[in-house]
Amino acid sequence: KVSAHRQAPAYSGLSGDGPWTCVEVEDSGIGISREDLNRIFEPFEQAQIGNTRTHGGTGLGLTISRHLARLMAGGLTVRSEPGKGSCFAVWLPAGEGEGAG
């Protein structure tokens, strides 16, 4: 599920007063444990490690995505629960008059 809306930031990692546009991508996949949430934005890190991994990748996508969001004066956050899925949110400043409503 993908959604976009204008709202107050859900976390304090953003600089500036806003207004903010939030784009969320939500899935109903395997989810991510609380311990793994602390490291998935680090380069070459993944929630699932070892020889029994069932999901591929190099562990750079989230690192690059967060970096790009920060270059645009925004941020990237995640909420997740194992077995119930994850929701990633990109927060970007909305210019005056953009996306009103």
In brief:
15% of the residues lie in helices and 29% in strands. The protein is built from 2 helices and 4 strands, in the order E-E-H-H-E-E.
How would you explain this protein's 3D organization?
With 101 residues, this protein is of the alpha+beta class. The protein has 2 helices and 4 strands, in the order ββααββ. It has a 4-stranded antiparallel β-sheet, covered by helices on one side.
Give short descriptive properties of this protein:
101 residues, alpha+beta, 4-stranded antiparallel sheet, 2 helices, 15% helix, globular
Give the helices and strands, then pairings.
Elements: E1 2-7, E2 20-26, H1 34-37, H2 61-71, E3 75-81, E4 85-93
Antiparallel strand pairs: 1-2, 2-4, 3-4
Unreliable spans are none
Spatial strand order of the main sheet: 1-2-4-3
Which percent range describes the beta-strand content? 25-35%
Number of strands: 4
Q: What is the SS-derived class?
A: alpha+beta
Q: Please work out how many helical segments DSSP would assign.
A: 2
Return the average pLDDT rounded to an integer. Answer: 80
**Main beta sheet: strand number and arrangement?**
4 strands, antiparallel
Give me the strand/helix succession. EEHHEE
DSSP helix fraction: 10-25%
Shape: globular
Supply Rg.
15 Å
From the N-terminal CA to the C-terminal CA, the straight-line distance is 21 Å
